[in-house]
Structure formats: C-alpha cells, structure tokens
Amino acid sequence: MARILTGIQSTGIPHLGNILGAVRPAIRMADEGSNEAFIFIADLHSLTTIKNAEERIHNVHAVAATWLAFGLDTERHTFYRQSDIREIGEFTWYMSCFTPYPMLANAHSFKDKSDRLSDVNAGLFNYPVLMASDIMMYDADYVPVGKDQLQHLEITRDIGQAFNRQVGETLVIPEAKVQENTKLVPGIDGQKMSKSYGNAINIFESDKALRKRVMKIVTDSKDVDEPKDPDTCNVFAIYKLLASPEQESALRDRYIKGGMGYGHAKQELYELICSSFEKERARYAELMANPEQIEQELKKGADKARIVGREVIGRVRSKLGYVGAGA
Ligand code: ADP
Ligand code: TRP
Question: What's the pLDDT tens digit per position in 272-296?
Fold first, then answer.
C-alpha cells in the first residue's frame, strides 16, 4: 500500500484554481486503488507571511472546510493540521543539520519570494526544510504537487538521502507525482488565477458577490451582434473547465454565430459555477458556521498522524543518539 501525502498552505480561502488544480485531483488520487493519503494544512508554513492569530485560525478553517466539502474521506485518510503534531519542529531541526546551506540559498522559490516580499525572514529561507520534514516524518511514498513544487521535492530527496547516507537507512525517500493533466485555471484577467494577483474567483462567496465577480471577467469590447472567438475569451476558458461537452459546444456555437453579448456568457458561467458546486458551497457554509465540527475532524486526523510521526521521529532520535529521558 502506497502512502501519498500532500499539504496546502493556509494563506486564504481556496479559489477555483486551487480547487480544480489541487484539491480535487488530490482527492481523486487518494481514493485510487489501495492508496492511503495524509493530507494536511500547512499552517506553520503560513507563519512566514501571516502573523495574525485570528487570520490564521480563519484560514485553517476555510481550507479544512474546502477539503471536507469536496468529500475528502477522513475515515479512510488522515486529514490534519500541521502544527497539531508538535514533533515537526524538532524533526525540522534534525533535517536542517543535513541540509547544505547553498541548496537553500539557490532555491528559486526563496529567490523569487525574497525579491518580492518586504519581510524576508529565516522561516522563508528554511521553508523547504520544514516541507521536507512534513513529508519524511510520515514515511510518505508519493507527493502529488504542482510543477512549481518540484524543486522542493528534489531538496526533500537530497536531505533524506544525505541523512540515510550519514547515519544509515532511516527515512523513506519520496517521489513527486506531478499533476500533468490538471489544467491551469485562468483568473478574471486571463493570467494564472492566483491569490497574489488579486484575480481569483472564490466559489464560496454569496451568490450576489460571486455573480459580481464573474461579471468582472475581462473581455474584449465586441458588440452583442458581432461573432466572437471562444478560444481567446477568458469567460469561455473558465466555462469549459466545468462544462459537459454538450454545454461547451452549445456555448461555442453561440459565440461564433454572434448575437450574444459577453454579459450573457458570464451569466451562463455564473449559473454553471452555482450548479456545479451547489452541494460543496452548502456544505462549506455549514462547516464554517460550525467550526467545532471542523476542529473535531482535525483532532481525529491529528490523533492518527501523531502515531506515525512519533514512530518515525523515534527512529531518527535513536539513530542520532538523542535517547535521553525526554525522548
Ligand atoms: P496561489 O497561486 O493562489 O498562491 P498556491 O501557490 O498556494 O496558490 O497553490 C496551491 C495549490 O493550488 C498548488 O498545488 C497549485 O498548483 C494549485 N493552483 C494554484 N493556482 C492554480 C491555478 N490557477 N490553476 C491550477 N492550479 C492552481
Ligand atoms: N509548499 C507547498 C505549496 O506551497 C505546501 C506544502 C507544505 C506541501 N508542505 C508540503 C506540499 C508537503 C506537499 C508536501 O503548495
């Protein structure tokens, strides 16, 4: 049985891109064959940027509610909050002493973030070591990730191999599973949808706010009567990610024929979002109104994750000679 593991940072409410690009594919992969999945909310990673307690708690709940609303099976899989397993801090220290400094200094996500952010802290620098620990403290075999995380997986493997070489076989060396067939979801401006570009669609907003957001999608200024090109239109690009083949070709025909304004296409998209995610939106709202239910789920997951984490850290401590009374 393979263990797959993935984490998602709690830095905001997951948007349509996160859902179609990460949440849904990970749930699908978790449920395949006899896989067992560890899925966690990376709330310690979020401290590199978010310092406010209420914001952190709200974000953790929003991310958790998203996974639960999209049907993650928390009986079969292990769904937990990173910070609930306190051993992760200790494990990260052990890993950091097997991490060559230049490897972190050359990590492109660090370089990119240190150019963009005003708060360039050591946590940001150590981010890949914490991520490596997230993976190896739970003996994960496969890690489903987007292409942007591949270098972090290489770093993880390098740290694990360095550890095993220097102190003997201890850690499972994980493999990345790149989500090849997931499509990049464009934002309302046509660029990749991203929190940091301010172009995201949040499907969990109220009907009114969601509709308003969809109406903001950027289009060209063709008149109602003119034929339009579906293949260069941002509205259509998002529509086709959710539509059935029949719905897609029906809307395509209306674009090409002319006589349909972009307002209509946007209304179609809004309605499709509502109907595609009706159940998930309702479940999300219910969970967010009952945070204690979310906490219960996270506690159940932490209790399962802790057993595995403690076993692995026990192996590491004994290999390193940390065998005192506290161990
Ligand atoms: P953001 O760009 O909004 O900060 P993250 O980088 O935190 O999002 O991404 C979290 C997960 O969601 C990653 O696995 C990433 O590959 C996926 N993801 C993010 N944006 C998109 C998108 N526009 N289309 C598809 N997947 C996405
Ligand atoms: N760095 C990942 C991201 O930004 C989140 C993450 C943290 C993660 N720890 C992980 C992903 C462990 C996979 C495995 O998307």
Answer: 999 999 999 999 999 999 999 999 9
- DSSP H helical ranges for the chain: 16-18, 24-31, 53-69, 87-96, 101-105, 108-116, 122-136, 150-167, 207-215, 234-242, 245-257, 262-276, 278-289, 291-320
Q: From the CA of 144, give the closest atom in ligand 2.
A: 13
Ligand 2 atom closest to 5 (CA): 14
DSSP state letter for 57: H
pLDDT of residue 327: 67
43 lines ligand 2 (CB under 6 A): no
**CATH pick for 3-184+291-320 out of 3.40.190.10, 3.40.50.1820, 3.40.630.30, 3.40.50.620:** 3.40.50.620
Interval 26-71: pLDDT, tens: 999 999 888 899 999 999 999 999 999 999 999 999 999 999 999 9
Q: For the domain made up of 204-276, give the CATH fold.
A: Tyrosyl-Transfer RNA Synthetase (1.10.240)
The predicted model gives 102-129 an average pLDDT of 93
